[in-house]
Amino acid sequence: MRRLLSFWLLWAGLSVVAYGQGVTTAALTGTVTDERGDPLPGANVVAIHEPTGSTYGTITQADGRYALLNLRPGGPYTVTVSFVGYQTRRETDLMLPLGQARVLDFALAEATVQLEALEVVGVRSSVLNSDRTGASTNIDAQTIERLPTITRSLADFTRLTPQASGGFSLAGRNNRYNNIQIDGATLNDVFGLSGTGMPGGQADAQPISLDAIQEFNIDIAPFDVRYNGFTGGAINAITKSGSNRLSGSVRYLGRNQNFVGDLKTPAGETVPFGDFSEYTLVGNIGGPIQPNRAFFFVNAEYQRRKTPLDVGIVGSRAATIFNVTADSLNRIINLARTRYGYDPGSYDPLSNGTDNLKLLAKIDWNLAAGHRLTLRHNYVNANKDEGINRGAFSFDLSNRRWIFESVQHSSVLELKSTFGTNLFNEARLVYTRIRDKRTVQAEPFPQVSILVNGRYTVNLGIDRFSQANALDQDLWELTNNLTYFRGKHTFTLGTSNQIYRFSNLFIQDYYGAYEFNSIADFEAGRPSRYYFSYSLLNNPQPRAEFTAYQLGFYVQDQYQATPYLSVTLGLRVDVPLYPDKPLDNPAVPEAFPGYRTSTTASGNLLWSPRLGFNWDLSKGNRTTQLRGGTGIFSGRTPFVWISNQYSNTGVDFGRVDARNLPAGCFVPTPDPSAQPRPGTALGTTCGLAPITTTEVNLIEADFKFPQVWRTDLALDQRLPYGLIGTVEFLYSKTLNDVVFENLNIVRTGTAQGGRVLYGQPSFNGRTERKDPRFTNAILLKNTDKGYSTSLTLGVQRETQSEGLGGALFYTWNRAENVNNATSSRAISNWQFNEARDVNNPELATADFEVRHRILAHLSYRVRYQRRFATTVMLVYEGRSGSPFTWIYNGNANADTRRDNDPIYVPANANEIVFTADSPGGWNELNAFIESEPSLRKYRGQIVPRNSARTPWRNLLDLNVVQEIQTLRNQRLEITATLLNVLNLLNSDWGKVRYASFETVPLLDFQGYDAQGRAIVRFRPISDRDDLLVTDNLASRWQLQLGVRYVF
């Protein structure tokens, strides 16, 4: 660590970087000439940030050029230009967006007598500007206040990016492939356990209060090499700061079940939302510590929510029905209590609660002329009730509950300095500390999963993935940029480095996990499958502990080729390093030559050359702009995929994965030492092999983090009535992405449609393994297969503080990959990847693709009678449904999993066999195939992954803010936010339907007959939508009321 720090300090002292905007700053550049266009060297340029009195000054160079860097984003600024013998020019009310360099040229008139200074008001387009190259969206302070949002999540704002795919997915990529920064500090979920891509996401918490954010950018193709760590998009936000005026606000937001609409079921019933409550309290205050010199800002937010699990059993009026009777559930509960001595809880309606507290404190200090220090700390404490998952096909009893707890600390120390007229420095030190854990609420017990009626699963006991689960993360970031400005060129040389330290406790099946094919089997204690993990070390709960470095260095030249054409050429290299090696298992190279558990993918260089340009075709009028670029973007994998190698070496844990155990092999105790394991008398009785079996996770030595080659080309045109039209093409080609392979399964043949078999297919299947000492050997490696492309057409009218603003965009998108990699575990990423050959998956539609998307938003603000103002904003999103795959319920390829095999669509009745007890036969199945295009077009084939789609979605949201001026500079705001306006107008509109885990089981697979035909059970389907899950909350209108006092 000491050597690394010394190296960084040496590099920081030698760095010479180009002018331009920074990750947390803005910039102002341009030329000063006389009226003939001749440069005026030595002219004084002074910019004053009016809220704080901060002053930034420089003089022009020999060619009349100037640059003011490291400016506070926002404003307003007043810029004054003066030169002896010339009239002074002044521009007022100038706003500088985050991450952009405003070009502001001045032509001074000669003055033989004293003249009044000439003042102009600065108006600048965030679209038509010379600093814009690739796809980018700026979310300013007024948009943050106006946009309809209830969750107060950054994801609600990323939807304003035309290339967004929903949530945090950008450009058709996995949301874990984004990079989120707050004040330059990485604040995405680098370990990768959160489905939202943000820390605290498992507790439904946001990493920062929305009221603490000043503005942020969503960049998909920033060709500045300082932006890195993503192949999806970069979300870069800055927090608010204090000013010379003491100011603040207090906000209350609330809603309950009376503010949520009823849901109309397919049967025509009206289902009210269950008891529900949510409230949020937010407070901000900021002001001067010492006027014009030091300032503070403090934010606090507390949120509490209670949400019902609105899934019911047969006979209930819940929005989603689990098709099992109360008699069957009562039988399971009574067996658990009387036969096995465990109280599994009930199937009564339940609610989940969440609580989170956020605190932020920030100090800005103008140390001396040209030097500004910022210290910011952000704290989040969140918890959420978890462990109860109920849906149409799976139902958890109440004693499975556990609480997810997350505590986060993030500190930033940043120093921005100016030396002379053309030398600028930006240094940043970040420390982030995150502690997550799962706290079990019920009595410990093995997980038990019971199949009812061959299709529905009832779960009791402690979730197999939560029996021993905790994570500690520590992240240090060291960044330094020294900027040198000279003439038409800017030269960039910089460094950005991260140091990660992880301690991960994850022992799946620590108490054991059992599956039963029926209630009768549960009663007999006869498991169809048994999982168990146990420590082979002295420590009964060993952790995966390791350190990772990622060092980055970059060089760049930004060249103003002509007054109308700027070109940016840069090169970046990043290198991940892993100083800690996993334990070595000597049995692995014996079984799988060429691989070792101690192998790490350390030191593999990631090169990222980039070229960007901006060309003002109107030659100074900035009415027609051609922009774009091409280059490589390097991200990082979630480190949990790396952690898998440290926690699954085969010398730390023994793993049991056994099938069809005899009666009496269910051990109803949480004591790990009492569970059946190899080499024990009970293990022998239960038919376990006498040798220790284990799972190993491996990585190829030349594995690289994800990389894409991305190209962007766009044309922006100013139109009448203040409109701007845009045409933008974006293409990303995968250079390196992830794919998983199981080295321990043996190919045994093929079946219908060329499906590759790995054993004896049946409902559960029996896998043929290469080496009996191992259950699975999952290899993480790279693939270069995959791409995403989009074409966007749009028109927008930029929003001003008053009046009308809005946008209308249409985006066509296509995205394909070989593995969506949505899980944290290597085995799950391999298993849950529907393919003809699970070890050689084909290119197919990505989960994150939205084929067609229409985005429209409109805002209007009017002020009247001096004291009143009303703001209205509408946001509409119409989009293609999400892709999903038709699968078998059963193990059609014997690959260890029974719910990951895409179905073979029979061409005719001779290609399929129905069981004697099948409710439906060929006529019913054939009719459904004919009615479903995603099946009909694949007759005689295996359906490709994600070849079907859920219905088109139409969502319309509204936000209204009523302002009432009270005392001087103070006001009261009353807000009403209405989500899913269409559902309020018509209960059949605004429905959101999805497929659980992007799959829909259509046929129950039982095996193949002697002719190789699939033997199945089929349940007739009256309505395709019955197979999908209706989102219980998003399919209803929701209202939230709020009040805010600003002083």
Written description of the protein model:
- The protein is mainly β.
- Among the domains are: 101 residues, Sandwich (Immunoglobulin-like), CATH 2.60.40; 164 residues, no CATH class.
- The strands form 13 sheets. It has a 22-stranded antiparallel beta barrel. It has a 6-stranded mixed β-sheet with strand order 27-31-30-34-35-40.
- A hairpin with a 3-residue loop joins strand 28 and strand 29.
- It comes from Rhodothermus marinus (Rhodothermus obamensis).
Using brief descriptors, characterize the structure shown:
1047 residues, mainly beta, Immunoglobulin-like, 22-stranded antiparallel beta barrel, six-stranded mixed sheet, disordered N terminus
Concise description?
The chain has 1047 residues and is mainly beta. The protein is 8% helix and 48% strand.
Helix content: under 10%
* First-residue to last-residue Cα separation: 47 Å
Overall body shape: globular
Task: Please outline the major beta sheet.
Answer: 22 strands, antiparallel, barrel
| C-alpha Rg (nearest Å) | 31 Å
Number of helices: 12
Q: Could you tell me the strand content as a percent range?
A: over 45%
**What is the average per-residue confidence, as pLDDT, rounded to a whole number?**
90
How many beta-strand segments?
65
Unreliable stretches = 1-20, 113-123
Structural class: mainly beta
SSE layout and pairings?
Layout: H1 2-14, E1 17-18, E2 26-34, E3 44-49, E4 54-59, E5 65-71, E6 74-82, E7 89-96, E8 101-103, E9 106-108, E10 118-121, E11 136-139, H2 141-146, H3 155-158, E12 164-166, E13 169-170, E14 179-182, E15 185-186, E16 213-219, E17 234-239, E18 247-256, E19 263-264, E20 270-271, E21 277-290, E22 294-309, E23 311-313, E24 320-322, H4 326-338, E25 350-368, E26 371-386, E27 394-396, E28 402-419, E29 423-440, E30 447-452, E31 456-460, E32 469-486, E33 489-506, E34 513-516, H5 519-524, E35 529-535, E36 544-562, E37 565-577, H6 587-591, E38 606-616, E39 624-634, H7 639-647, E40 653-659, H8 681-685, E41 694-699, E42 707-718, E43 724-742, E44 749-751, E45 755-757, E46 759-760, E47 766-767, E48 774-783, E49 787-797, E50 803-817, H9 826-831, E51 844-845, E52 852-864, E53 868-879, E54 883-889, E55 904-905, E56 912-914, H10 922-931, H11 933-936, E57 941-942, E58 948-949, E59 953-965, E60 971-979, H12 981-985, E61 993-994, E62 999-1008, E63 1014-1017, E64 1029-1030, E65 1038-1046
Parallel strand pairs: 1-32, 2-8, 2-9, 7-10, 14-17, 23-24, 27-31, 30-34, 41-48, 54-62, 56-63
Antiparallel strand pairs: 2-5, 3-4, 3-6, 6-7, 11-16, 12-13, 14-15, 16-17, 18-21, 18-65, 19-20, 21-22, 22-25, 25-26, 26-28, 28-29, 29-32, 30-31, 32-33, 33-36, 34-35, 35-40, 36-37, 37-38, 38-39, 39-42, 42-43, 43-48, 43-49, 44-45, 46-47, 49-50, 50-51, 50-52, 52-53, 53-59, 54-58, 55-57, 59-60, 60-65, ...
